[in-house]
């Protein structure tokens, strides 16, 4: 049974829409732990569009389960990671214009940069996972460069528009997962997983961690909306000065 890493980025997205103090991803992390999360995942992007430095620092002090920092292998963010020391760093590609992380990390094409980043993080006692497409060559290169784990990008599986396409992408994840385990890497998966498509992924042999964010935040808004309106209605219905 895989561990559940809850990605809280989009709680911060709502806060940043108003540049205010709520909702606080630090509160969300506490609630996620109460709900059974095995890990808290956050992405400190170079453009700081959602998670802020303050969030990472507070989460390091408050989170009691595994703290997983998604990050680009860039100097500024690497320095912050080395200082804050999350339990795990997941290296992801980052483009400023993208809506979300669009593809896996090109480990093969960036061997030197990625390898140096892995080494620095590992020297600081941080476990390193690389977010890659389900591609044997990228997985083997991840092992060669010293990563502890790969997180296979489940986006193409999640985005499949027909059952046949979903089955094909599922098989690609199963096969790539086998390669990762065979070379001695821990096997994680994530991106685009939802309440509808997660069960098959959780059943893949050897997968030890799933990172899920958007779908959980989306559902939290829906299951919490009615109560939130009731509480505001009660205040509006009982004015006092
Ligand atoms: N794993 C990685 C490496 C990611 O970049 C993301 C998105 O931040 C996720 C998992 C979570 O994806 P989603 O929000 O679609 O569940």
Q: What would your notes on this structure say?
A:
With 241 residues, the protein is α/β, with parallel strands linked by helices. It has a single domain (3-237), classed as TIM Barrel. Helices cover 48% and strands 17% of the residues. It has helices spanning 9-18, 25-34, 53-62, 75-84, 111-123, 136-144, 155-159, 163-182, 198-202, 214-237, and strands at residues 3-7, 39-43, 66-71, 88-91, 127-132, 149-153, 186-190, 207-212. Strands 1-2-3-4-5-6-7-8 form an 8-stranded parallel beta barrel, surrounded by 7 helices. Helix 9 (198-202) links the parallel strand 7 and strand 8. Helix 2 (25-34) packs parallel to helix 3. The mean pLDDT is 97. Pyridoxine-5'-phosphate (PXP) binds at residues 7, 9, 43, 70, 90, 92, 100-101, 131, 151, 190-193, 211-215. Pyridoxine-5'-phosphate is lined by residues 7, 9, 43, 70, 90, 92, 100-101, 131, 151, 190-193, 211-215.
What is the structure about, briefly put?
The chain is of the alpha/beta class and 241 residues long. The protein is built from ten helices and eight strands. It has a single domain (3-237), classed as Alpha-Beta Barrel (TIM Barrel).
């Amino acid at each position: 049974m895989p561990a559940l890493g809850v990605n809280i980025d989009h709680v911060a997205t709502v806060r940043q829409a108003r540049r205010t103090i709520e909702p606080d991803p630090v509160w969300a992390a506490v609630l996620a732990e109460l709900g059974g999360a095995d890990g808290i995942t956050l992405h400190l992007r170079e453009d700081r569009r959602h998670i802020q430095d303050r969030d990472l620092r507070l989460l390091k002090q408050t989170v009691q389960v595994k703290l997983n920092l998604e990050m680009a292998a860039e100097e500024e963010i690497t320095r912050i990671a080395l200082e804050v020391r999350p339990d795990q760093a997941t290296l992801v590609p980052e483009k400023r214009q993208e809506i979300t992380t669009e593809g896996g990390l090109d480990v093969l094409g960036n061997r030197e940069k990625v390898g140096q980043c892995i080494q620095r993080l590992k020297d600081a006692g941080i476990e390193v996972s690389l977010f890659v497409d389900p591609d044997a060559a990228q997985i083997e290169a991840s092992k060669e460069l010293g990563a502890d784990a790969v997180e296979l990008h489940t986006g193409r599986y999640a985005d499949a528009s027909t059952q046949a396409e979903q089955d094909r992408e599922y098989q690609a994840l199963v096969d790539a997962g086998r390669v990762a385990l065979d070379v001695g890497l821990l096997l994680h998966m994530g991106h685009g997983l939802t309440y509808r498509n997660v069960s098959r992924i959780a059943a893949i042999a050897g997968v030890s961690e799933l990172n899920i964010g958007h779908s959980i935040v989306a559902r939290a808004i829906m299951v919490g909306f009615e109560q939130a309106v009731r509480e505001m209605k009660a205040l509006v219905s009982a004015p006092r000065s």
